Automatic annotation (TrEMBL):
<dbReference type="GO" id="GO:0016887">
    <property type="term" value="F:ATP hydrolysis activity"/>
</dbReference>
<dbReference type="InterPro" id="IPR003593">
    <property type="entry name" value="AAA+_ATPase"/>
</dbReference>
<dbReference type="InterPro" id="IPR017871">
    <property type="entry name" value="ABC_transporter-like_CS"/>
</dbReference>
<keyword id="KW-0472">Membrane</keyword>
<dbReference type="InterPro" id="IPR027417">
    <property type="entry name" value="P-loop_NTPase"/>
</dbReference>
<keyword id="KW-1278">Translocase</keyword>
<keyword id="KW-0677">Repeat</keyword>
<dbReference type="Pfam" id="PF00005">
    <property type="entry name" value="ABC_tran"/>
</dbReference>
<dbReference type="InterPro" id="IPR050107">
    <property type="entry name" value="ABC_carbohydrate_import_ATPase"/>
</dbReference>
<dbReference type="InterPro" id="IPR003439">
    <property type="entry name" value="ABC_transporter-like_ATP-bd"/>
</dbReference>
<keyword id="KW-0547">Nucleotide-binding</keyword>
<keyword id="KW-0067">ATP-binding</keyword>
<keyword id="KW-1003">Cell membrane</keyword>
<protein>
    <submittedName>
        <fullName>Sugar ABC transporter ATP-binding protein</fullName>
    </submittedName>
</protein>
<dbReference type="GO" id="GO:0005886">
    <property type="term" value="C:plasma membrane"/>
</dbReference>
<feature type="domain" description="ABC transporter">
    <location>
        <begin position="269"/>
        <end position="516"/>
    </location>
</feature>
<keyword id="KW-0813">Transport</keyword>
Length: 521
């Protein structure tokens, strides 16, 4: 562990130094004397639970907050940004988690929005703009056309466009990335990391803010841990995850997970030689093939697999949100055959589903906490089409304390909540219907470690009352610590059913088909 500001022999002097940074909002102290140094050509990860001070520190660094205590130096010269534009002028650019892009415009128009090259000082010079956009896009790769409409691009491509936008006004000296991988697939994360490594090789310093601890060692050089508004340590990015967790929350990784439960004898979900064939096959949608799987009451079963393994697709099929198609084999819920239909039909059979994209396919972002929480249970809460306020209050009294949702109030806008609390609202919406089988797809994506632990304990407590859970996650340590069994999928097929303490290398080898044989426990 190295003190902040210390530079080992042979390393370049700091590019950015922050000393004694403090900030309070009213009576709430967000930062308490934080010291931070950023070196040229490094990826410096910044981690901490929600409320630890990451966003406030980032906003000071990027010029969004100008009123703060302490000093900031850029290349040895004291500086205080009055606005994000002021920071951008000296080479400090930011890509926020909520991408600052206009979906209906082309990539080129997004890159130069408000700074379009013009002819005669009046007309937009489209040929010049497209030529310049092409040159910028080549720096981030990915084969993105400047004429493509941003809203038609995959999320990973939009992330690349947002980075290209930061590069369009000149090479930044410091690029701040706020939760850049929160909603990306494994392949899109790998592509983003290629872009980051390319920028790092050019001497650009990257400030990488993330909740995904497993990514830190893959892309980072150093990591600073914030807790309760203080920088508690700056350590090498190779620091073991167990130690990072201890620095984050003051407890061990094992402490995040609740004790294992006990499965009951009754089978909640049974798949026998189950397959699903979409009427219109797509290379990006991996159909399930010949699945044999049982999930019992009180059991949490984890779906493990690489990109394209079919984890999400299996959950979508069971909930009725898959593309239209034909099923074969047998699928039963509580011993009764299930015919794949619609989400409404699944809900009626006691199946609940929490999708991986909480904003794109889960939350109604223009509505309040209450409206989002009760959305799946309006019929029970209504009389002849009128929502009854008393029933809603009863639902809130049940849900808010149990879910530990932190919000200004039940009527607060859903987007005013942190990612972890938004996720708890989405889970709570389904739980209000009291399902017997819960399907979870990446339930802790973009969620801080404290909220993750709350979700683990909540779902385990529900499993103890008889709920069966089938959960897909790209975080193997999460599945190993949380689940009772691990089911490995590869190319839509189930290749192994393993205990959670199986060697992670063996699990990944099965998922990747590297000199392994199929096995069932």
């Amino acid at each position: 562990m190295e003190p902040n500001g210390a530079a080992p022999n042979g390393t370049p002097p700091p590019l950015l130094e922050m000393q004694g940074i403090g900030k309070a909002f009213g009576g709430v102290r967000a930062l308490r004397g934080v010291d931070l140094t950023i070196r040229p050509g490094e990826v410096h990860a910044l981690i901490g639970e929600n409320g630890a001070g990451k966003s406030t520190l980032m906003n000071i660094m990027s010029g969004a907050i100008a009123d703060y205590e302490g000093k900031m130096r850029l290349s040895g010269l004291e500086i205080r940004f009055s606005s994000p534009q002021g920071a951008l002028k000296v080479g400090v650019a930011t890509v926020f988690q909520e991408l600052d892009l206009v979906p209906g415009l082309s990539v080129a128009h997004n890159l130069f929005l408000g700074q379009e090259p013009r002819r005669s000082g009046i007309f937009v010079d489209n040929s010049t703009m497209h030529r310049r956009a092409e040159a910028v896009l080549q720096r981030v790769g990915g084969g993105i056309s400047p004429r493509s409409i941003v809203g038609n691009l995959r999320l990973g491509q939009q992330q690349a466009v947002a980075i290209a936008k930061a590069l369009a006004v000149g090479e930044p000296r410091i690029l701040i990335l706020d939760e850049p991988t929160a909603a990306l697939s494994t392949h899109e994360v790998e592509r983003l990391f290629e872009i980051i490594r390319l920028l790092r090789s050019r001497g650009v310093a990257i400030v990488f803010i993330s909740h995904r601890l497993e990514e830190i060692s893959q892309i980072g050089d150093r990591v600073t841990v914030l807790r309760d508004g203080r920088a508690v340590a700056t350590v090498p990015a190779s620091t073991p995850q167990e130690q990072l967790v201890s620095l984050l929350i003051g407890e061990s990784l094992r402490a995040l997970f609740p004790p294992a439960g006990t499965a009951r004898s009754e089978d909640r979900l049974t798949l026998e030689n189950f397959s699903y064939r979409p009427r219109r096959p797509s290379p990006e949608w991996q159909a399930p093939h010949d699945i044999n799987l049982t999930v019992r009451a009180g059991e949490i079963v984890g779906l493990v697999g690489l990109l394209g393994a079919g984890r999400t697709e299996l959950l979508q099929v069971l909930y009725g949100t898959a593309p239209p198609g034909l099923q074969s084999g047998s699928v039963k819920v509580d011993g009764r055959p299930l015919r794949i239909g619609s989400p409404l039909a699944a809900l009626r059979r006691g199946i609940g589903f929490v999708p991986d994209d909480r904003r794109g396919s889960g939350l109604v972002t223009t509505r309040s906490v209450t409206e989002n929480l009760i959305l799946a249970d309006l019929k029970r809460l209504s009389t002849v089409g009128v929502v009854r306020a008393g029933r809603v209050r009863d639902a809130l009294r049940w849900g808010l304390p149990r879910l530990k949702i932190k919000a200004a109030g039940a009527d607060a806008p859903i987007l005013s909540l942190s990612g972890g609390n938004q996720q708890k609202v989405l889970i709570g919406r389904i739980l209000l219907r009291q399902p017997d089988l819960l399907l979870l797809d990446e339930p802790t994506r973009g969620v801080d470690i404290g909220a993750k632990a709350e979700i683990y304990h909540l779902v385990r407590s529900l499993a103890a009352s008889g709920l069966a859970v089938l959960v897909a996650s790209s975080e193997l340590p999460e599945l190993a610590g949380w689940c009772d069994r691990l089911v490995v999928l590869r190319q839509g097929r189930m290749v192994a059913d393993l205990p959670p303490d199986t060697d992670p290398a063996r699990v990944l080898a099965l998922a990747a088909d590297t000199n392994t044989t199929q096995e069932q426990q």
